[in-house]
Design brief:
Its cofactor is Mn(2+). The protein is α+β, with helices and mostly antiparallel strands. Helix content is 38%, strand content 15%. A hairpin with a 6-residue loop joins strand 6 (112-117) and strand 7. The chain is globular. The chain binds manganese (II) ion.
Length: 495
């Protein structure tokens, strides 16, 4: 039966171009490219796409929008990520720096791009610096993008070796009165004072660095992140599609992890199961270290030890999401370990759920809300719900029960908040989380039957003109659906 099917498919494809593609793919192992391209990975990338789901033209549009917004005489420098090491020479799987990736789609470490605003038809000149091909290195790590491919595939005006970066910068920087660059340590540790010298040490590790420091120093660089952040805040149609897919993969993994859960298992087993399901669906990694908190562990907001055992009648709080084709997802669900909420668990869950749904409904442009206002609403709603459950709320009590913020923007980064103002109104095309929670410490100030319950419900919401779209809808949220998923009655076979 299966043999016949394969033969039929071969017959159908034989007269089409896709068959030829399949044949040529087979001969492209190992891939001669530095990252997946249609020619080598047609199962991941369509012909016009530069990275899965995003066309080369969209990358061009992003750069153009950035350069159009900047004043004349502007120079933009964006730096790729570097490989991080776990210990000695043992490296972590590489993830590209977010802004660099947003502007280029280029996935190799130790690279940089320089965009010089000019009066050409394109409006700017793009120079990409990378490691280029190196046959010695290739035997160990596989191919890098050649400079010819950088010009052809990534549409750069000039492709050069990263070693030429400092001298190039030095030769052009004095021509520009506005230089936009983010210094590496400002991306990782915002509190530390960064110097231009550390940037160049990082970039080149060469003695001529000091000369370039002088050049940059005179031009007083401005931060690039807020400029790119403004563009990244509004998601394009293709970004929305990728984010929906990321949230859908994570949502279904939540549903299946509910089904997988039973008392006696470890929190780590649940985390592993979630991770496995996301990987199986094509996610490249988890977007963050997941929280799998059983019982009172849920009172620790960022509980990531995930190393205890699940007991009967406990709630499990899972805050987990995958990264898919460059976009993060972020979902929290809280559910009963043995499949049925106890009455106090059900009451507290219903309270958080009612508030969460009311807040989600506000996430459209028409309500003209800022994130600060959404947070104030969440405090009001949760206060009302808690009073109805018999809580006596004295000053400071609500902050104790609900100690975190309601929302953050999400996209390429899990928290796209660094350059996002909580005082700006929600605009169509933004994606934000809505994540109220209640965490009841075992204090005589609060009703005893709610002690040690921690509940958070978090969805990802695409802000619309007139209504919100919940991207994480595949994760069960209503009590009947959560209990159904835990007990195995929710269409999980469709995973
Ligand atoms: Mn979140």
């Amino acid at each position: 039966m299966s043999f016949r099917l394969v033969k039929n498919r071969t017959f159908i494809y034989a007269s089409s171009r896709s068959y030829a593609t399949e044949i040529s793919n087979a001969s492209l192992k190992p891939s001669p490219y530095g990252q997946p391209l249609f020619q080598s990975h047609s199962h991941l990338i369509k012909p016009d796409e530069l990275t899965p789901g995003i066309h080369a033209q969209e990358y061009e549009d992003r750069r153009r929008s950035l350069m159009n917004r900047l004043p004349d005489n502007s120079l933009v420098v964006s730096l790729a990520g570097t490989i991080k090491y776990m210990s000695g020479k043992i490296f972590y799987k590489f993830r590209q720096a977010s802004d660099f990736w947003y502007l280029t789609g280029f996935e190799e470490p130790d690279s940089a791009v320089v965009l010089e605003k000019n009066h050409s038809a394109r409006g700017y000149r793009m120079t990409l610096f990378s490691s280029g091909s190196d046959s010695n290195k290739e035997q160990w790590d596989g191919a890098n993008t050649t400079f010819a491919d950088a010009r052809r595939v990534f549409q750069v005006d000039d492709a050069r070796h990263i070693d030429d970066f400092p001298s190039h910068l030095r030769s052009v920087v004095h021509q520009y009165s506005n230089v936009y660059v983010d210094l590496p340590s400002s991306r990782t540790r915002r509190t530390s004072r960064t110097t231009t010298k550390s940037l160049l040490k990082y970039l080149s590790g060469r003695s001529e660095a000091d000369l370039v420091v002088e050049s940059l120093g005179k031009s007083r660089p401005k931060p690039l992140a807020p400029e790119v952040g403004r563009l990244r805040a509004i998601k394009s149609a293709s970004e929305q599609k990728l984010m929906r897919m990321a949230a859908d993969i994570s949502g279904r993994a939540h549903a299946k992890t509910m089904r997988f859960t039973r008392p006696g298992l470890s929190e780590a087993a649940l985390a592993a199961h979630f991770n496995y399901l996301c990987s199986l669906s094509g996610a490249q990694r988890l977007a963050y270290v997941p929280v799998v908190a059983s019982g009172p562990n849920a009172l620790i907001i960022h509980y990531t030890h995930n190393n205890q055992l699940i007991s009967q009648e406990e709630l499990i709080l899972v805050d987990a999401g995958c990264e898919y084709n460059g976009y993060a997802s972020d979902i929290t669900r809280t559910y009963p370990a043995d499949g049925t909420f106890t009455p106090p668990q059900r009451d507290l869950y219903s309270a958080v759920l009612a508030a969460q749904k009311a807040l989600v409904a506000l996430c459209h442009e028409g309500s003209n809300l800022t994130l600060h206002e959404l947070h104030r609403k969440s405090c009001e709603l949760l206060r009302q719900e808690l009073l109805q459950l018999g809580f006596q709320l004295h000053p400071g009590d609500l902050e104790r029960l609900y100690p975190h913020f309601i929302s953050h923007p999400i996209g390429i980064d899990l928290h796209e908040s660094d350059s996002f103002s909580r005082s700006g109104s929600l605009k169509a095309g933004m994606v934000v989380t809505v994540e109220p929670g209640i965490y009841v410490p075992p204090s005589p100030a609060f009703p005893k039957h709610y002690h040690n319950l921690g509940i958070r419900i978090e969805d990802e919401v695409l802000v619309g003109k007139e209504h919100p779209v919940v991207l994480s809808a595949s994760a069960p949220k209503e009590i009947v659906d959560v209990e159904g998923a835990c007990q195995g009655s929710l269409g999980l076979e469709s995973f």
